[in-house]
Amino acid sequence: MPFDLDPYLSARRQLVEDALAARLTALDETPAALLEAMRYSLLGGGKRLRPILALAACEAVGAPAERALDAACALEFIHTYSLIHDDLPAMDDDDFRRGRPTLHKAVGEAMAILAGDALLTEAFRVAAARRGVDPAGTAEVLFELARAAGAEGMVGGQALDVAATLGRPTLEELERLHRKKTGDLLLCAVRAGARVGGASEVQLASLTTYGRALGLAFQIVDDVLDVTADLATLGKDPGSDREAGKTTFVDLLGVDGARRRAAEVMDAGLLALGPLGAAAEPLRALARYTVDRDR
Amino acid sequence: MPFDLDPYLSARRQLVEDALAARLTALDETPAALLEAMRYSLLGGGKRLRPILALAACEAVGAPAERALDAACALEFIHTYSLIHDDLPAMDDDDFRRGRPTLHKAVGEAMAILAGDALLTEAFRVAAARRGVDPAGTAEVLFELARAAGAEGMVGGQALDVAATLGRPTLEELERLHRKKTGDLLLCAVRAGARVGGASEVQLASLTTYGRALGLAFQIVDDVLDVTADLATLGKDPGSDREAGKTTFVDLLGVDGARRRAAEVMDAGLLALGPLGAAAEPLRALARYTVDRDR
Q: How many CA atoms lie within 13 A of B103 on its CB side?
C-alpha cells in the first residue's frame, strides 16, 4: 500500500503551526507592534516545507518527530524572514505574498525590516533552546543553520541574484545561485532533523544526497510554476522573476525540459534513501510532492 | 599605580581587528560584492567596545582574553549589522557613519540590507564555532546572544524607537527603550565573556550588575554627545536624533543632569566589581572611558 501523504502532512503541519505560535507567544517582552508584524508573516500560511522536512528526516532515522520541533521552527523563522526582506522595495519590490499584502505593504518598511531581523535572530534562540537535544548536537545544528542561511548560503544566493539580473548565467551558474539561495536551507532542514534524531554518519550522508537533490528540484519547479501558474494559485505575482530580468531554468531548458530535469534530479536523490527503508516513506512522498506541486 | 587603559585598549583592539578580519576571510565562498560590503562596514573602524568588554570580562574571572574571541567577534558582527540596518532610508536615513558614507550610500540599499542580514547570521556561526569552549557553554552564550539582539532586546528597542517618535516618553520608558536598544547587548558582552571564561554564578551576578549599569550610562552619554559634539569628532551627523523628533535623556534631564545621572549609574555598577579585585581593573577603566569619552 503506498504511503498516504495527505494525513501525514496535515498532522505534521499542525505540530508545526502549534509550535510556531507557542514560540511567538513566549516572546512576551516584545513590543506589541513588532510582535504583530512577526505574527502576520510567520503565521500567515505557507507550505511549512522546511520544518516538515526536518520532522520527516528525524523520523527517518527512527526518532519521534517532536524532537526536531525546535530546529523545525528555527528553519521556518529563517525562511519567513528571508521572504520579508526579499519582498522589500529595494529588493524584489513585491506587493503580494501568500495572497495577502506583503509585510511592508501592511505595516511599513521600517517595521518590516525589523520584523525580519527579529525572526532571523530568534531563529537561533529557538535552535539554542536544547529541549531534549544534547549540547554538542545543538551547537552543530546552530553552526550548520547559520552556514546555510548566511553569506556563503542563502544571503549569498540573494546577492548573486541581485547581480545576476545584469547578465545571462550558464546552467552551472544558475544551479550554484539556487543551491545557495534555496538549496542550502532545504538541505539543512533534512540534516538538522536527522542530526537531532541521532542519525549515524552513514545515514547523514544518504540524507545529504537526498536533501541536495530536493533543493535543486524544488527551485526548478518554482521556475516552471512562475511561468505556468496564475496569481490565485500561486498567491504571489506570477512572472515576477521574468519581469525582473532574471534568468530562470525555464529560459535555459524550456518548460518541458525543466520539468524533466527536476524529475531526473529527484530520482537520483531518492535512490540514496534506499538503506533507510520504510521509515523514509514520508521523505519519498515529500519529494514527489515537491516535484508535482502546483504552487 | 592606576591602571593604564591606553596600552590595554591598543592591544585588545589589535586582537579584535585581527580576529574579525580572519573570520571574514574564512567566508571564502561568499560572492565578492557581498563580502566587500560586509568588510566595508565591519572593518571600517569603530571603538570595538562590545568585543573588548567581552575580553575584559573573560580576564576579570581569570581566563585568557583569547578564549572570548569568538564571542567577541559575534558581538561586533551583530553591532555592525544593527548600524547598517539602522542607517537605511526607511529607518534613520543617515548618510554618514564613522566619517564615511553609510553602507547603502556606498553600495546601494539592496546590498546593504543583505550585508546586514549576512553579518547577523554569521555572528551565530562564529559564536557556534566552539574553539576551546565546552558545548553547553556555547549553547548558553548563543541563547543569551540571540535574546539580547532579538525581539525582546535590541530589535525590540529599535521598534520602540520607531514608535517613540510619536510621543514623549517618561524617564522610565526611555530607560526601558535604551536597555533593549543598546543596554542588553552591552550586558551580553560582559556576561558572554565571563561565561566562556568560566565565571562562577556569584561572579556572573556581579558582572551582570556592572554590565547593566554600563549599558545605561553608555546611552546617556551618547545622548549628551549627540548635543555637544560636532561631525568631525563624532563621525556621524550630530543632532540627528533630535532632528528625528526622538526624546533623549538630555531632553528629560538637561546636559549637566544627564552627565550626573550617567556618573551615578556607573558608580553603582562599579561597586559590584569589588569582589573581583585587581583582575577587574580593565573593566573599571572601561567604565570610566565610557562615561568620559568624547565620541
A: 29
